[in-house]
Amino acid sequence: MQRLRYKRLEIRYAVFFLFVLTLSGCAGKDAEGARYRHASRLGTLSGKGMVIYAIGPEEFPQGGSFVAIQDALPSSEGAQMLRDQVLTDVTIAKTVNDLGLPAAIGLVSSGAGQAQRFAMFYRTPRRSLVLQRSSMSAQWLSLSQLYESRIVADLPNVPQSVRRLAFHEDLPASPWPVTIPPDVRDAFAVPAEPAAPVSAVDGHDYVAVADDLMARLLPTVTVENRQRAEAMLAKLEPVAEVEGLHWRMMVISGEGAMGFGVPDGTLIVSDGLVQALDDAELTAVIAHLMGHERYQHARAAARRRDILSVLTLVGGSLSLAGGAMGSFLIPTGGYLALIASPQFGYTQTEEVEANAAAALMLSKTNQAPGELFEAMVKLSGRGQEGTLAFDTLHHLSDSTILQYGLMLDAGLSGKQP
Predict the structure, then answer these.
(1) CB atoms inside a 10 Å sphere around CB 269
(2) Residue 415 falls within a domain, yes or no?
(3) What is the pLDDT of residues 379-393, one digit of tens each?
(4) 141 Cβ partners below 8 Å, 6+ apart?
(5) Are 164 and 227 found together in one domain?
(6) 155 C-beta neighbours (distance < 10 Å), count
(7) Regarding beta strands 248-252 and 266-270, do their DSSP bridges make them parallel or antiparallel, or are they unpaired?
(8) Same domain, yes or no, for 142 and 211?
């Protein structure tokens, strides 16, 4: 019996040995180019997060065997990345050979210069794998050109955020299933839930800035838009009472989807934003704007710009929006230019804080935090760079929307005390 067991192990290692030799022999120069492209892609990731790519079956018409993938000429970036990973990593090549082609992949960064991971998501049956790239570990086979990753997460499901963004499945915002357990949150680069904002702020020094903005901006002429925005704010106010903030709403005229706030509690949204969203989504976006003011992010932006007095913010000009709305200038662009500035405006960390605060407010008012995810998807790609369009001002992209979705997948929404 013992001899039979050793014989089976010998056969198993022999098969794996032949598989690795075949992979190494076939890869050749393709693997060298793949490693270069992989390093280039890692250089584009900054900070912690994940970027996902859908993989269409047409990219690999001959199937998921190593030879079929090596001989394919995929056109999409995601399919090219999968091919490169198969050519350079023994474990990934074997996984794809055993399980077939994934429906989506993800490149995961745990921080600048930190360990990188590769994720594969399968539609049928549902399965999610995250692999940690190890150092080149096959040198004893004289295969120093190849990596051998290790699996750090293996789930019998696919997070809803990935299903929405990569599989394009039409799923309800509520209930949002928790699919990422605590022990693998780091493997998926789930953002840590931020600390709660301070219990009291002093927004009085921004009242003059807010009053000036409200006097100069063109108010909406659509009564329904104003009433809807005010009604959604009224839903949230009972759970957002904070000393030093006086919540008030202004809806401005314009087809572009815009939304921002002032640290005194003034919120400003456009006709275009109100009309683009249903009531649940509009409530979620207003909660997000309130989250920025709860954390006083504009004040933090002013500190980043070394502004000693908020009174110096008045002046200058800024193009508010583009596209269907056209462009126009306002004299109070100094404050608006500050929050819209790529150098000094809202950071991605501050967007995570605003999202967490919004999720908490929505949970406390028995509304679905997933509605903010749906609103983000709707608003993404609607604006122009350098304007106050909601998606550019709040850094909406597939990766930042996914970041919030992963927090929901991990059950981190609305959990602050």
Answers:
(1) 30
(2) no
(3) 998 766 556 889 989
(4) 17, 20, 21, 24
(5) no
(6) 18
(7) parallel
(8) no
Name the pTM for this structure: 0.82
Q: Is the same domain home to 263 and 349? A: yes
- Looking at the predicted structure, is the pLDDT value of residue 362 above 80? yes
Same domain, 212 and 329: yes
By CB neighbour count within 10 A (0-12 exposed, 13-18 middle, 19+ buried), where does 65 fall? Answer: middle
What range does the domain containing 166 cover? 16-171
* Domain-located, residue 301: yes
For residue 68, CA distances in Å to 80, 96, 145, 244 come to 13, 11, 20, 64
Can you say how many angstroms the Cα of residue 376 is from the centroid of all Cα atoms in its chain?
10
Dump pLDDT digits (tens) for 302-341: 777 754 343 444 444 444 443 333 333 333 557 888 888 7
pLDDT computed for residue 12 by the predictor: 47
Distance CA 132, CA 337 (A): 41
Q: Tokens representing 303?
A: 């500190």
Query: What are the pLDDT digits (tens) for 101-138?
Result: 999 999 998 665 455 899 999 999 999 999 997 655 44
Examine residue 143 and state whether it is found in any structural domain, yes or no: yes
Number of domains in the chain: 2
Among 125, 151, 171, the domain boundary falls at 171
Cis check for the bond before 263: say yes or no (omega within 30 of 0): no
Residue 11: what pLDDT? 47
Three-state DSSP class for residue 329: strand
- Residue 99, domain member (yes or no): yes
Asked if residue 215 and residue 141 are part of one domain, the reply reads no
Query: Do 282 and 351 fall into the same domain?
Result: yes
